[in-house]
Specification:
This protein has about 450 residues and is of the alpha/beta class. The chain has one domain (about 5-150, about 190-235, about 305-459). Helix content is about 30%, strand content about 20%. It is built from 12 helices and 19 strands. The strands form 4 sheets. Strands 1, 2, 3, 4, 11, 12, 13, 15, 16, 17, 18 and 19 form a 12-stranded mixed β-sheet that branches.
Length: about 450
């Protein structure tokens, strides 16, 4: 059942045991230990502008107590994989040091000696940056269970998308992402550990997101892939030419894009020389090439029609793909449960530089679309203005949301009642402050278009 809890009213361990007991019972194989994957949001070890992390990553307290709960419910007869694929330049060891999480996880093994507990960095490659420019790349220790290419084909949300050939991934080499997404081919490189799980427990962080509006259950699955350059993040250009990189492209935007493309290509070919030139350009402030500031670029706005599609594709790949990349039917979903961490949420320039919000909530449920619908309302946002949530309820051969959005209800402990998800109140007065590219998605009344609501608030 979809539920919203006040975090300060619960012992996290006891709550996790209560929520996960039926899930563990249903997932336990009869002939071997259960394999349970716990997937936090470990995007990076520190915020972009400072060393803060409480609003950035999933609470170490929550991760620890969920792992304890799984160990207790399985009596230690389980393989628990705590894993994520952070940003390629994130420091994985530093993430595990936050809140002394590494030591706390080790204490669970002391409590349950038969338990096999592993923390896995799912990235295949690590990058090292200087002044925001990649200057060195190293192969990473890979997922011990390998990787699987999952091709959604015509089932992909990107199938037939007009941006084909102009997708931008996560690296300077645009050829890679467009090789894996063209025609009837829409391919993602999923880590074997999440695909192997008997039970997948998603522990996302409740934050704003510059490309999808929010990040919670659905967007958190970006961290189950092995190569982020297989993931389309935006489409080059503007809506007038079928792109979604920015609202319009003027002459200055055109110059910026060309300089950026040339500098990145030079950095790939000759990192020492090209990287130096690219860093010099950034330091000189040529059109704010890092994508920050107050100008919309790099798909960081509500017109991004690419990134939500990629995120929903990853959810379908996890829920329905086999280890060999084949796809199951709609009735053969992977067993899945989510506890979204809104103990301290993140607002503003999320997902990597959020400001903390003392939202004091946890959202729990077995369907990621429903969890995110509740999360959007807890944050004070209009679900209709969030394509990543709205389209998760679309009819599809491999459905994510299995109940019509208008019929989804949740138990809201804050008021002690079962209510329609559309009636869920924000966790803080006025809701979360969105990223500046998403300012017209706040609390639009039913039937009012997002743009109209935004215009009304500015009058």
């Amino acid at each position: 059942m979809l539920s919203i809890f006040r975090a300060d009213r619960h012992d996290l361990f006891e709550l996790a045991v209560r929520l996960l007991e039926p899930e563990i019972a249903a997932a336990m194989p009869s002939n071997r230990p259960a394999h349970v994957v716990v997937k936090p949001n470990w995007v990076q070890h520190r915020a972009e502008s400072n060393d803060a992390w409480h609003a950035l990553i999933t609470s170490p307290d929550l991760v620890h107590q969920v792992v304890r709960a799984v160990a207790t419910l399985t009596k230690g007869h389980a393989v628990i994989s705590v894993c994520d694929a952070p940003h390629t330049y994130a420091d994985f060891d530093a993430i595990l040091s936050r809140g002394a999480l590494r030591d706390r996880l080790a204490s669970v093994v002391t409590e349950w000696p038969s338990l096999h507990l592993e923390t896995i960095d799912l990235r295949r490659e690590r990058w090292f940056r200087q002044d925001g420019v990649v200057v060195r790349r190293e192969l990473n220790t890979e997922d011990p269970r390998g990787y699987t290419a999952v091709d959604l084909g015509a089932r992909s949300c990107l199938h037939g998308h007009g941006g084909e050939g102009r997708f931008y991934g996560a690296d300077y080499d645009r050829r890679v992402v467009n090789l894996h997404h063209r025609g009837d081919r829409h391919e993602y490189l999923l880590a074997g550990t999440p695909l192997d799980a008997d039970l997948f427990i998603n522990l996302p962080k409740l934050k704003t997101h510059r490309k999808t509006g929010i990040t919670a259950a659905l967007k958190n699955l970006v961290g189950i892939n092995g190569d982020k350059n297989w993931l389309p993040h935006h489409t080059e250009g503007c809506p007038a030419d079928g792109g979604d990189e920015r609202p319009v492209v003027g002459w200055a935007d055109w110059v910026e894009t060309r300089v950026k493309t040339l500098a990145q290509a030079a950095t790939l070919r000759a990192p020492a020389i090209g990287g130096t030139l690219y860093r010099l350009a950034r330091r000189r402030g040529i059109a704010l090439l890092d994508g920050e500031g107050t100008s919309i670029r790099n798909g960081n706005w509500r017109g991004n029609d690419t990134c939500w599609r990629m995120a929903l594709d990853l959810n379908r790949a996890l829920l329905f793909a086999n280890r060999d990349g084949s796809l199951r039917t709609a009735t053969q979903r992977k067993r899945y449960f989510c506890i979204a961490d809104g103990i301290v949420g993140g607002e503003g320039n999320g997902p990597t530089d959020p400001e903390p919000v003392l939202s004091n909530v946890l959202i729990a449920g077995g369907n990621p679309a429903e969890v995110d619908a509740a999360a959007a309302r807890v944050m004070g946002f209009d679900v209709e203005c969030l394509p990543i949530v709205r389209h998760a309820f679309d009819r599809h051969e491999l459905p994510i949301g299995t109940t019509a959005l208008a019929l989804v209800t949740c138990f809201d402990e804050r008021i002690g009642a079962q209510i329609p998800v559309s009636d869920v109140a924000p966790a803080v007065p006025g809701g979360f402050r969105p990223h500046f590219g998403w300012t017209d998605m706040i609390g639009a009344p039913p039937g009012i278009a997002c743009g109209a609501a935004g215009a009304a608030r500015t009058q």
